């Protein structure tokens, strides 16, 4: 059975955008998290670890989406994104763990629909020695069904980014994105 790439033009904030399509909501989340980090950085240093936790939930919708796999279809997406964030400050530096989970549904003009989800696990370690380590593991998927709920196809995307900064030198490693398609579109 032939496999065909599924290309869906999603809004910036929507799940399934991966590295190919950046989410505008990341900018808003980034600003909020930067504010939290600034407050946490202003706290006095102590021998004990200081932990800061934040959860942000955002919902949205957008119309006029195009499905490159099925020309002529126009979709409307409704989705929710949740970011959980934790920063641990220690005398040697700090560690950040962030998880972004996005879910949504695209309803297509022929009545079919796609259930989409995306998850990012991001960690950062920044040490007083100047060493920095950052890793982002990304996965997203879409299951598409007929208007009657009959499964049509599934697509997934996986990617890992890793960045290390030691002694003034960056080392970057990317695991190229892997697309997987189940059933032709």
Could you provide a short overview of the structure?
This protein is mainly beta and about 180 residues long. The chain is about 10% helix and about 60% strand. The chain has an eight-stranded antiparallel sheet with strand order 1-2-3-4-5-6-7-8.
How would you characterize this protein structure?
By secondary structure, this protein is mainly β. The model is unreliable at 1-40 (pLDDT under 50). The chain has one domain (8-182). Strands 1-2-3-4-5-6-7-8 form an 8-stranded antiparallel sheet. It has one helix at residues 25-42; strands at 8-9, 50-67, 74-90, 93-108, 113-127, 132-145, 151-166, 169-182.
Sheet of most strands: 8 strands, antiparallel
> Residue-averaged pLDDT, rounded?
78
Looking at how many chains there are and whether they match, the oligomeric state comes to single chain
Structural class: mainly beta
The number of domains is 1
How do the strands line up in the largest sheet? Answer: 1-2-3-4-5-6-7-8
Helix content: under 10%
């Amino acid at each position: 059975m032939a496999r065909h790439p599924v290309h869906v033009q999603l809004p910036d904030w929507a799940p399934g955008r991966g590295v190919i399509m950046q989410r505008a909501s990341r900018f808003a989340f980034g600003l909020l998290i930067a504010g939290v980090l600034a407050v946490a950085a202003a706290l006095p240093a102590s021998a004990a670890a200081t932990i800061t936790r934040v959860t942000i939930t955002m919902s949205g919708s957008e119309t006029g989406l195009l499905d490159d796999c099925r020309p002529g279809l126009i979709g409307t997406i409704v989705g929710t994104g949740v970011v959980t964030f934790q920063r641990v400050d220690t005398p040697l530096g700090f560690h950040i763990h962030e998880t972004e989970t996005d879910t949504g549904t695209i309803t297509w003009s022929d009545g079919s629909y796609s259930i989409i989800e995306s998850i990012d696990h991001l960690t950062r370690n920044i040490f007083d020695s100047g060493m920095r380590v950052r890793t982002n593991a990304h996965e997203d998927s879409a299951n598409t069904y007929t208007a009657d709920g009959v499964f049509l196809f599934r697509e997934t995307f996986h990617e890992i980014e890793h960045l290390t900064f030691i002694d003034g030198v960056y080392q970057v490693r990317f695991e190229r994105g892997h697309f997987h398609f189940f059933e032709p579109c």
